[in-house]
């Protein structure tokens, strides 16, 4: 027999039903318009659907776990509380089939034990939970007094003020049962003093990973594939790491920010490469990984190498800045934006982000955009949804979106692809130990993390694993490559680094860029060869050459807009072959000094995705 909570009113159920009839017409459960809920992203409404089998409840602080279970069991529309770990006192609750979600939420929001209740939102196969917080950026000239008055008028308090971006705040709605965070974000959006305003969401299952195991370079086929067993792949279906390491193994002046679940700070193959980081969940300086997703990512990007133990990272000698934004599989959007701001302000050169999903957020996009404008290179995993649409934020045009290939250079069926995809990199089987393709990297030391410390699985201490996979495993390898390129020439801009990575891939699928492989599988040797010889003269649109025959110069014309105009080079030079974005040269100067209004191939260059670079070779 189910235990039920005792309520003060003897006719509670009748009163509850009567009050609910009033509440259903008066309490707002989110700003509804058309068929769904919405908020604003650069003045464009983003519509959200609601999950039909789950809701989220934030219980009051003094409610015990047993009382929570009793409350759920007392409601016939609810099945039980999920064991998924969530922050801020939130709990994911399963509902019975065909329940009226808004009705269930209305009833629960009446209870004193519930701080607030909200739908679980869905956007492109990703689930999100709205918190009682929203993220606002006021215009530059708005004073603190004006902000205080507006917040007080709307019964809102400041959770934190960003130290990185002026007038950017995370705010909390004090009575979310009256107006929730989505309602309040939309109210603030209408204020002329606001630059952006959106709810703070928790994106569920945002980390792109799989499951556990083990070790050593001779088995790291992704770096050097000889067709070794396992995984019995195709020889040279790799990223040509040993060949590239002849040019550079990385510089200690280049810092990779691993924005994830933190990093094992005492790991034997990582600790010497670590710089100080931050924990955005606990708001302290201890970003130690207890979940086991960030440590494998860090190892793939920059594990210590040539040290007679463990595994090799792509960028051996580059530094790792551990930034913890999750201690399980969720991502808090506000924390992610803060971590990107922190990386930008504290000197990170490359940002590795093996997470994503959910609907677009203007504050997060602004953080990413400002990091890129400050010179940071941002690498995002494309997602593991088997979707023809790359997940946000990887879908942004100014980041590097990475898909995943197997040991035979075939695209993994879990890897997202589409018009936003830039490149692919090797990864393992999404089904972990039930599959056939393994991928070695670092794991939390001892029996923690994804390796259980079994000698049959790998290292006896469990310090390494061999089943890390998904696009989570592909993205850090591109991160490592970007760090190597900067190690060769730290004056290169993010667009130039992206151009080098894109332009030196091993091409698969349709010739040139295509939706399945982007520009192709990355090649470290080819990329570092180009980086070493990259002799661009970016003064206006005038190229400079060495006098040697065959010397190359590059120029940035901007993002594709249908034609390239004003391509020119130093006067007095003749005999140049001109090419666009790595295509075969088809224009020769014949004594001319410039080209104007040259059309680009629209099928080869998806609009607004690829920076339009030209290069010319002295014949």
Characterize the structure shown.
- 21% of the residues lie in helices and 25% in strands.
- The chain contains 12 helices and 29 strands.
- Strands 1, 2, 3, 4, 5, 6, 7, 8, 9, 10 and 14 form an 11-stranded antiparallel β-sheet that branches. Strands 12-13-11-15-16-17-18 form a 7-stranded parallel β-sheet, with helices on both faces. A 4-stranded antiparallel β-sheet has the order 22-29-25-26.
- Strand 12 (278-279), helix 7 and strand 13 form a beta-alpha-beta unit.
- Helix 7 (294-302) packs parallel to helix 10 and helix 10 crosses helix 11.
- The longest helix has 18 residues, at 471-488.
- Residues 1-35, 210-214 and 535-619 have low confidence and may be disordered.
Task: Give a brief rundown of this model.
This protein is of the alpha+beta class.
Throw out a few tags for this protein.
single chain, 619 residues, alpha+beta, 21% helix, 25% strand, disordered N terminus, disordered C terminus
Which shape, going by the Cα principal axes?
Answer: globular
Query: What portion of residues is helical?
Result: 10-25%
CA-atom Rg in angstroms: 26 Å
Residues in β-strands, percent: 15-25%
First and last CA, distance: 88 Å
**Total DSSP helices:** 12
- Sheet with most strands: 11 strands, antiparallel
Rounded mean pLDDT is 80
Uncertain ranges:
1-35, 210-214, 535-619
State the secondary-structure class: alpha+beta
Kindly state the number of beta strands. Answer: 29
